[in-house]
Amino acid sequence: MISMIKQHTTRSFAAVTMLILLLMSTSIAFAQDDVAEDEATRDETISDTLYEQLELLQQFTREARGLEEKGAFQIVFPTRADLALYLSVTLEEELSPEVLAEEMAFYSAFDFLPSDYALYEEYESLYMAQIGGFYDPETKDMNVLVLTSDELGDELPLFEQIIYVHEYTHTLQDMNFDLTSYLDSTDTMSTDEAMARLALVEGDASNIMSLYTVFIAEENPLATLAELLLSGMEVGGLTLPAGTPDILGAELLFPYEAGMEFVTALYQAAGWAGVNDAFSMPPISTEQILHPDKYLEGDMPQEVTLPDVGALLGDDWQLANEGRMGEFHLQQYLITQISRSTSRRAAAGWGGDAYVIYEDDAGNQAWVLSVVWDSPEDEAEFREAYADFAMIRFDEAVADAPCWSDLTSVTCLSVEGTTLVKAPTLETALALLNGGA
Q: Tens digit of pLDDT for each residue in 156-176?
């Protein structure tokens, strides 16, 4: 993974460069394909045998990815205790109460999490369970945790070898495409666009990691499978921790899984040159990641404007979050009530959107989401799916209006187009739906 904490500023994934731990267990310096000539930079606890293995892993990665080193970097092997300290410091600095409030406004508005969910604690446990390595593009430190043995020996176990290849791919990306510049601008983007950028980075590294796994497995498939399964059990499993909320798991996995498919499509279309070009012409929506042909065709999201919701609601309401939801999160919203296959079909054809969320002092929410589509058929398919969604999600339909109510709110869908609104009362919902008209 790239060294970042998922921070939502007006619901954007801010590419926050993580603070590198001051307490690292072991490090090695590399430069320009060869061992740095100044042996004083090399920790003597690293054996020659291990050093040679790391060089072979790097050689495989360079050849598989078709990129060369340009400059120096440092490989670091932090302990689990180091990681725990690192996460504690970083999360405390990056996930301020204001940031958490913005995130929770989004998650609770679209039924992803209850409004009182302990989000900070979930992030802490989720990252601690899932991080096996990370690369910091500012310090040029490439961190790989030794998870499947008690200490660093003369050879990295297979699980750590795979992580090493993944993180070294990030190192090569940084050397050739400047990840600091590529990721720094994500703090001003919508969540949707920032997720798309990250999917290219992680999808690229995940593809090379997979190539290495196949390379090893070809020599001894059964032994490779057995070692990976055993490694997975030793580090707590190869899947997300039990109880991880669906939305957080989906967000965590999206850059790797969907990103791999996106990068594969670019490679099939134009080889590694096509993947390289994407770093200078980044994908700008999760739609382009989910449907690589949209990226290859230059299909751009449409701009969507909303009425002045704050003026419609009055002084008792404050802006809690705003942005672009994107196809990925629209799909996830539908999945909270209807099947994945139906949700994916209904969200496909997304052409652009905008949402805004307001909250009052009592904790009530009011929001507006307006979506445009690539075709009338796409819009009709979404409306049909949302009718099924509404029958499950809400207690009853409101007579003579495309509205539904539950114990605390009313949600309405526009008669024409796709504008969804939610408010504590029918009167307020209809005012939002009509834009104050």
A: 988 899 999 999 999 999 999
